[in-house]
Amino acid sequence: MDNSPLQVLTVPTAPYTDQRPSTSGLRKKVYVFQTKRNYLHNFIQSIFSSIDLRDRQGSTVVVGGDGRFFNRTAIEVIVQMAAANGVGRLIIGHHGIMSTPAISCVIRKYKAIGGIILTASHNPGGPDGDFGIKFNTANGGPASEAVTSKIFQISRTIEEFAICPGLRVDLTTLGKQMFDLENKFKPFTVEIVDSVESYANLLRNIFDFAALKELLSGENGIKIRLDAMHGVVGPYVRRILCEELGCPANSAINCVPVEDFEGQHPDPNLTYAADLVDSMRDGEYDFGAAFDGDGDRNMILGKHGFFVTPSDSVAVIADNIFCIPYFQHTGVRGFARSMPTSAALDRVAKATKIELYETPTGWTFFGNLMDAGRLSLCGEESFGTGGDHIREKDGLWAVLAWLSILATRRQSVEGILKDHWLKYGRNYFTRYDYENVDIDAACDMMEDLELMIADKSFVKQRFAVEDKIYQVEKADNFEYTDPVDSTISRNQGLRIIFSDGSRIIYRLSGTSSDGATVRIYIDSYEKEHIFQDTQVMLAPLATIALKISQLHHRTGRSGPSVIT
């Protein structure tokens, strides 16, 4: 066997112009990474080059993914390039699999300089699906816009990358693997770790596992149904909910991660998690939840498939936050929601006199507030909820938070939510997604829409639908000044706010690799009529939203791809 030091090479390359990452990372079709020469290598080198050499030398980096197709191929390249770029240690999840919340946890636990997460989240996988690469920084959260911009600028001018092509790692064996490299004084270390244990231990210190075990497996326990959608969270559900908290094994379905998610869309909503919704309808189960590909999103259901909107979910957790022992010890520093999320959380914040922050979409904004000690609980309408225990949204944490509330209050999900509406009133909320729209048509529509609402004459305009009249009170393109560092984020979504507080919001989403996704959000508050059908209650505002934007005409779409 050859024990000579492994060779480090510098390989010439040519840049690409389309490697601009969002805070959700760089997402492309798998074939882009497979067929474009050095496409993966360029982007990984751009990540490493964005880190100061002095910080990089001898540092620790965490690597893991949601198990989708191309995951193992990408990890092999990342390992070879990390070694060549001076990283001292890589911590990698067993078999290369680790959930996004767990990676955030491990970055923080081991004081790593960051982590590389291989996921396209809730987007489809497989050879014809999507692949993504996301960089999280030392706080465990998504890279800021300043960091992603730096990565992009490097990717546009890159001329070479460093790699150690002879380095081979065994992802199947737990423990440390050491490698000697030429011209390196210290060996390069790869540590393959149990993907679940550090994260599970964190949850044990947040929740009352004894109370949860009694709820789930005690004499008067409830029956639950959890759908991992063949994503990364399956092993976490089995280990924590089934083995430790005593749920029957058949409570958890689709728990084996599969490279193509069995051909499904690993997106926990009423459309893509329809099997779970159907299984809840007959009332056999008291509580249901689904998770996305990388485990950071969640959907909550009650008996008979009673749907809890993500906006209501974070509001209910906020109102019952001391059902979670962690917050009994730390107190509550603040609440936050993304701008498109309904204002249900605002009402809890006002009643409890806790500071409320309205941020742009993207978890990095929440992380900044958490790092400054200003935020404890936050959520997004896009099925993301989390606390300040890590710097990512956390699907399993949200489920355990809900189960903690059920254990304390001993009510049904529906009963808890209806009590909440009786106490605070109800924010009816819906989102229409128009997926894979021609990007030029979508951009043109948004530009014309912004010009329309920016005109001074637009304010005070009245729109009538049947017997409802809505008058525009404010219209703008949302802009956020971070209260921590005063950075300004512009162009975060077009808002039309009516005199009764109802809102229509338009955004172009940046998390799809295929065309554009146009999103319309509708939020309307009711104090009295709180038990009505959401789509019926919001139909007048939906009509106005389509009339103002002319979306169907401008995009050629007759209706949304997904309604949530």
UniProtKB/TrEMBL annotation:
GO terms for cellular component: cytosol. One of its GO terms (biological process) is carbohydrate metabolic process. InterPro entries: A-D-PHexomutase_a/b/a-I, A-D-PHexomutase_a/b/a-I/II/III, A-D-PHexomutase_a/b/a-II, A-D-PHexomutase_a/b/a-III, A-D-PHexomutase_C_sf, A-D-PHexomutase_CS, Alpha-D-phosphohexomutase_SF, PGM. Keywords: Cytoplasm, Magnesium, Metal-binding, Phosphoprotein. It is found in: Cytoplasm. Gene3D superfamilies: Alpha-D-Glucose-1,6-Bisphosphate, subunit A, domain 3 (3.40.120.10), Alpha-D-phosphohexomutase, C-terminal domain (3.30.310.50). GO terms for molecular function: magnesium ion binding; phosphoglucomutase activity. Residues 20-160, 198-303, 328-424 form the Alpha-D-phosphohexomutase alpha/beta/alpha domain. It comes from the Eukaryota. PANTHER family: PHOSPHOGLUCOMUTASE-1, PHOSPHOHEXOMUTASE FAMILY MEMBER. This is Phosphoglucomutase-1-like. It comes from Scomber scombrus.
